[in-house]
Amino acid sequence: MGERSGDHARGDAAVQGRPVTGDTRTLSSAPMAAAVKTTVTELPESRVRVEAEVPPAEVQKSVERAARALGRDLRMPGFRKGKVPPPVVIQRFGRDTVLDEAVRGTLSQWYLDAIDAAGIHPVGEPEVKLGDLPGQGQPLTFTVEIGVRPTAKLGEYKGVEAVRREPEVSDEAIQTELDQLRERMARLETVDEPAAEGDFVVMDFAGSIDGEPFAGGEGRDQLVELGSGRLVAGFEDQLTGAHGGEERTVSITFPDDYGAPELAGREASFAVTVKEVKRKALPELDDDFASDAAGFDTLQELRDDISAKLRERDAERVEAEFREAVLDAVVERAAVDVPRALVDARAREQWERMLHSLSHQGITREVYLQISGKGEDEQIEEAKPEAEKALRRDAVVAAVIDAEGIEPSEGDVLEALQPSALQEGTTPEKLRRRLEKAGRLDELREDLAQRRALELLVESATPLTQAQAAAREKLWTPGS
User: Fold this and answer.
1) Sign of dihedral through CA atoms 279, 280, 284, 288?
2) Structure confidence at residue 25 (pLDDT)
């Protein structure tokens, strides 16, 4: 069969390896633990071509696995169901059929092995082309073309200057914390006043459609905050102004996408009895409140504690901002060519990753687009500046790692694994072996190298106060 591209061959675009360096030529040919051999050639526009070869023995293992899977549901005279040997299955279906099934089931992993063996950092979706299906005893070949992290030519990267502000805590921030604490300690008190937005009503209700009660339409002693949007649109609004003991009729229309299909889009009437109107009673901000809320003797002690915690939080933000400012200062002094196609690929990659994360929270692509009020293309376009910045930062950090020869030691790896090992009730050594077996140890080493590179930049940087930065800005003139 001729060359083909298959969606089933797409791998995880976030696979991490090492950067490709050099000019447009064949760079390396390296075997991997998974036995996939690769040859990497650089292409223009920060792209590479990876020619991969899966040895015959590895192909045969995959064929046998596929045959065992096909044989699970195969009934043949003389064999129990699911116990047909792979050679018999291959003879029954034909080698080409079993081989095609094997390739479809394993090509994604071979792709990942090839990327790892090639030592590249892929960006965006790969173009995978599969060669002819191999004969008995022949290797399987395929090629991958994909964007890769751009390379950076470093300028000055040690001792750069960057703004580092002082941690600060405003009176407004302290008051916000106190107000939230008061809300958590608020009591609901019954009032003899008309219900307003923000008040709570205790009510009984019985719903009907066309005069007939419906399942789930009745409730007793329900506590609802008016304006919370907890009930079907329009329900809470019709209780505004009600007094305790008052009876009202509330009419609503269930939305077309209502969770119960039998109610969606239908009009309903509810007989409501408002039994009580309750209102939040916030505690006074005084020494008693400080004692009840947090065990402090005075309100001032509570304020001081809140201030200290807010300052500690802001100090962490200050350090994060300074690290970013230092890295961006180094990026400004470096030469990094980032092709537009690579920016587009990274922006789309980030978009897909975000959608994947949201899917774990039950938020689909369609729901997110509806909530955001923006189309997919528009959001990807808006993400491109950040995508380009991320690519430039990645390239510079990789260049610093190379320039400084940063390579995490075995001790660094075990130290980094210590917290996770404790949490899992194992040892760092056992966790390390598990990561190595899963092919994730290089990813950890690279992460440690990136952290060390950033630490090196920050340690050598010169912090400027905001006042110093402003003064220098005034002194600077074009061409100076």
Assistant:
1) positive
2) 31
**Largest Cα–Cα distance in the chain?**
92
DSSP state string for 71-84: HTT---TTS-TT--
Amino acid present at 56: P
Q: What is the dihedral of CA 58, 60, 62, 68, to 10 degrees?
A: -150
DSSP letter (8 states) at residue 39: E
Tens-place pLDDT, residues 246-261 = 999 999 999 988 888 8
80 band by pLDDT with thresholds 50, 70 and 90 = low
Average pLDDT of the residues in 397-403: 96
Question: What single-letter amino acid sits at 100?
Answer: D
- Determine contact, residues 266/246, Cβ cutoff 8 Å: no
Q: What's the rounded Cα separation, in Å, for the pair 329 and 457?
A: 10
Kindly state the helix (H) or strand (E) to which residue 450 belongs, with its residue range: helix 441-460
When pLDDT is averaged across residues 295-316 and rounded to a whole number, the result is: 96
CA–CA dist 212, 268 (Å, integer): 10
Cα(399)–Cα(333) distance, rounded to whole angstroms?
Answer: 13
| Distance separating alpha carbons of residues 30 and 309, to the nearest angstrom | 53
Strand boundaries in 31-183, DSSP class E: 37-43, 47-54, 122-130, 140-148, 152-153, 161-163
Using alpha carbons, select from 155, 458, 159, 162 the residue that is nearest to residue 336.
Answer: 155
Cβ contacts of residue 214 below 8 Å, gap of 6+? Answer: 207, 208, 262, 263, 268
Pairing of strands 152-153, 200-209: unpaired
